[in-house]
Amino acid sequence: MEWQAQQFTLPRVNNWHFAGEDDVTLSTDQDIVAFNEYMFGESTKSQITFLRSLTLCRRPSEGPIPFYIGQLLIALFGGLALKGRLRSLTVKHAETLLSSIPGLAVTVAQLTTLDVLSVNPCGAQCLELLRQLRSPLTHATINIARDFVKADGGLPLESLHDILLASRTSLQRLELGTWNIFWEPHTCFPNVTSLTLRWMLDPQTLDYVRAFPRLQVLRTHHCDVSWVADEHERRAMNQAAQSVSLFTLWTTLARFRGSPSTLFHLAIPVHIPFVSLDDDEDYDCTTWMLKTALCDVRPLFLELRLTGGAWLTSPALQQVFAEPALGTLQSLTLSVWADSNEEGLYLETALDTVVNEVIPCLPSLASFDLNISGNWSLISTGSTPVQRTTKKEDVDMKAIARRIQRACRTRTLGSVAVSLDCGGLTGIPRTELGNPYNPAYTSGADDDDIEGEDEDCEQVLDALVKARGDSDETDSSKDMGDDD
After folding, report:
1. Rounded to the nearest 5 degrees, what angle is found at the Cα of 7, between the Cα atoms of 5 and 9?
2. What is the pLDDT of residues 269-300, one digit of tens each?
């Protein structure tokens, strides 16, 4: 086939400017026409070998895809397959695009140089592309279209057993967005170290342990929806499946990010050093659920973001952190936000809870970062309500930090940070006491900053093995999968 864009009668467009290895985005028909004219022009046709990153994001609102646009895209990807060195490809509105252009999915699948692929949303044509793709990917993002999901929340089993065959051993990071995915037992990606799950229905822990046996980083977003109403039953199913499995558990897992209830339901019975939990998407998180989930994984470094003033005005957190399994916690970032419809919440009560009920429970704590925000009221030392117009200068943030530091009975707490964004204190600078705590592997990176997280995991694995060995020695008699 002649990969010549000039063989079509095309509308005239402005000249395309392409500088070497730029990331190219084609979002309109004019973009596609202009870029093809540039790539296949007599004086610029060699430029196709320099294209490294391409994003296709033609919106359905542009209208039906003209025939000549489809032919141009087939010509472009045919040329890239023959002579190109494309490393990264992102296709938005992917199913609409691929299903509207016969032969495009097969042509894209002929690419052999891709490292990174993102397709969203996926249906039958996208999955066909993923079946035939010849590139050995290192990073894939696959978001399944909601209208492709079966009525019971799953996908046709034949849709997934043979995708990404060329990437089975090369894939390192995978992001999946769908209502549900079932991995057959023989489907395995042995070198995937980072997995992100979005909008999953009842994720089955054992399926992912088998498919990604060397996982180091697991992130979940909105994976709390379930067909099973009983919280205990959902957790029990994952516990039972793992207890009878011959597969090794996730002994390399170093980081988890998600909601408390997702961690609870997954029932992962291994020590995970770095845990970040946010109940913003979790409307049913209870004290018992949080306590059980944390005791399963026994973190050393914990970020905990909770919604609701009751967490700091009741014994809830004391019940959680009094568990012996959490006695090795070294770093805690605690953020509590009170909703505007909550009344009778006083900042002094919250600080008393931290000082008297949280810090004393953590004998190994070396770093504590407290963030209180939302609808809290100030109370003076005489227990007289202070108006929200109280001058910020009246609040001694250093004194608050020192009080927290003194509450640690073992005197291991060397780093304290306090941020108060409530009760008229908005704008007061964050206060830090002591030297910042810098463990070899820190948590807290943004969800998009996964490169650094995955690289850092390599640095912590040796320490992780030792930490698990020490922890298992002290907890050998404890059944971490026990629900009671």
Report:
1. 95
2. 999 999 999 987 655 788 999 999 999 999 99
Report how far residue 408's alpha carbon sits from residue 366's, in angstroms, rounded to the nearest whole number.
9
Global model pTM greater than 0.70: yes
pLDDT for 11: 43
Most confident stretch, 170-179, 196-205, 240-249, 391-400: 170-179
* Length in residues, the chain: 484
CA 131 to chain CA centroid, nearest Å: 25
What is the β-pairing status of strands 367-374 and 53-56? unpaired
DSSP 379-432: E-TTS-EE-TT--GGG--HHHHHHHHHHT-TTS---EEEEEEEETT-TTPPPEE
- Cβ atoms of 84 and 51 closer than 8 Å: yes
- Dump the DSSP string for 232-253: HHHHHHHHHHHHT--S---TT-
| Bridge partners for 301 per DSSP | 274, 331
Contact in structure between 298 and 268 (CB atoms under 8 Å):
no
CA distance 187 to 197: 17
User: Residues near 256 by Cβ (< 8 Å), separated by ≥ 6?
Assistant: 218, 219, 220, 263, 268, 272, 274, 275, 276, 297
